[in-house]
Amino acid sequence: MARRLQLKLLTWDVKDTLLRLRHPVGEEYAAKARAHGLEVEAAALGQAFGRAYRAQSHSFPSYGLSRGLTSRQWWLDVVLQTFHQAGIRDAQAVAPIADQLYEDFSSSRTWQVLEGAEATLRGCRKRGLRLAVVSNFDRRLEDILAGLGLQEHFEFVLTSEAAGWPKPDPRIFHEALRLAQVEPAVAAHIGDSYQCDYKGARAVGMHSFLVAGPEPLDPAVKDSVPQEHILPSLSHLLPALDRLEGSPPGL
């Protein structure tokens, strides 16, 4: 008779898995600009932010620590580049906006806990699972989680800034497993990114679940992920764990 799988550790992505911004980035940036006397369309700022963030992540991965940056400097530059691409070229005018935005996004008031997150975390702990965070976030994450009352659920919070590698780099998952002192076969990761979370965790031998969210999944992703690994919402996790632990090891 096959030995029944018993998971020991669940690692969690955070942004758009447990938390989300209360307002879209473009709206937050536009509101702060308006408070400083600058009128910029939220849609233009939202699009510019996406381009600036991707370029900065490519040029200075893991918040540029290996290149001598701090995560604060990294983010301030993203804000400056966002406004520049949206047509505001005056860096001196944008600098105080960037400082304020960095502080605002450090505050739990800017974030909200997704529906079902608190109950799901409590349910996981009730069944004896250890919980930890593995997130492509910076040093502000622990304070944000504490401010929202979620940090108490986690044994540790491992960010890409602290680890030096962003998901899906296998080293950040290996570091989480080392910190927890568990084997990948008895660990699972939960997140909303197919590449960073689902595939990244499975590449090191962990189980993983993909949080689908409100938007339809890309058909190619949907075809690549077994239905039992897709979570339409966080409330689907505990039943999915029951199914996983009831299957033979290795599935």
From TrEMBL:
Signal peptide: none
Pfam families the UniProt entry points to: Hydrolase
Domain of life of the organism encoding this protein: Eukaryota
GO cellular component, one term: nucleus
Record family assignment: Belongs to the HAD-like hydrolase superfamily.
Full protein name: Haloacid dehalogenase-like hydrolase domain-containing protein 3
Originating species: Neophocaena asiaeorientalis asiaeorientalis
